[in-house]
Amino acid sequence: MDYPLRAYEYWMRSYRRVWRGSIATSLLNPVLYLAAFGIGLGKIVNRGGHPLGVPYLDYVAPGMLAAVCMQLAAFESSYPVMAGIRWTRQFHAQLATPLRIRDVVLGHTLFVVSRLAVVSGIYLAVIAAFGAVHSPLAIAGWPVAILIGAAFSTPITALSGWLERDDGLNALFRFGVMPMFLFSGTFFPLSRLPHGFRELAYATPLWHGVDLLRHLTLGTATFWPSIGHAAYLAAWSALGLVLAYRTFARRLLR
Question: Where are the domains of the chain?
C-alpha cells in the first residue's frame, strides 16, 4: 500500500543534490519580483490613484504566486518526465521493482506537490512581509496554490509521456505557459482583452487560480465562486491524473 511513497522517495533522494540552490531561488525570486512591482512599476501604475481599486502590488502579488506555481509544475512535469521515459528510462527501472504504473504516477505527482508546497509557502510569506495580504483568508491560499500547480502538473505529465520528441515541450512553454503567464489576469484585468481572447483566458486554469488567490489575499472571497474556482482546478488535476496513468501504461508496458 505504500508503494507510491517508494516512488516518491526516489524523487526526493534525487532532489537532495540540488535542493539548496532551488530554495535560494525560491527565496530570491519573490523578493525581486515583488520589489520590482511594488517599488518600481507599482509607483507608476498607482500615480494619481489606484486605477485597479487596490495598490498594484496587492493586485499583482497573488497573480505572481499563481504563475510561479504554474511554471514550477510545468518544469517538473515536462523534461524530467520525458527523460524518465525516453532517455534515462528511470520509470522503466521503477517498474522492474514491485512498483506499478499507479505507484510511478502518484509518486511523481507527490514529489511535484511537495515542491509546490515549499515554494508557495515561501512565496506567500514574502507576500505577507511586503504587506500585500489583507485577510486571514490568505492562509487558504496555500492549498489553493498547490492545487493550481497540480492542475498543470498532471496534464503536462500526460503530455510529456505521450510526446515523441522534446519539440512539443518547447512549443508548450512558448505557446502555452508564457501566454498564460502574460494574459490570464496576472498583471491586468481580463476586461482589457478583446473578445475571443478574453473568453479563452477565462477558460485557463491559471485565471481561476489567480482570481481565487487574489480574492483570498484581499479578503473579498465569497463561498460559491471560490468553490467553483477550486472545483475547476481539481477537475483539471483529476483529468490529468487519469490521462497520465493511461499514457504511462501505453508507453511503459508495451
Answer: 3-252
The number of beta carbons lying within 10 Å of the beta carbon of residue 71 is 18
Q: What DSSP designation does 194 have?
A: P
Q: Using CA atoms, how far apart are residues 76 and 199, in angstroms rounded to an integer?
A: 28
Residues 6+ apart with CB under 8 A from 40: none
For residues 91 and 7, give the distance between their C-alpha atoms in angstroms, rounded to a whole number.
Answer: 9
pTM for the predicted model, two decimal places: 0.94
What is the Cα–Cα distance from 252 to 254, expressed in whole angstroms?
6
Cα separation of 3 and 8, whole Å?
Answer: 9
Q: What is the pLDDT of residues 152-164, one digit of tens each?
A: 999 999 999 999 9
Crossing angle of the two packed helices 56-76 and 101-129, in degrees rounded to 10: 160
**CA nearest 154: which of 48, 74, 99?**
74
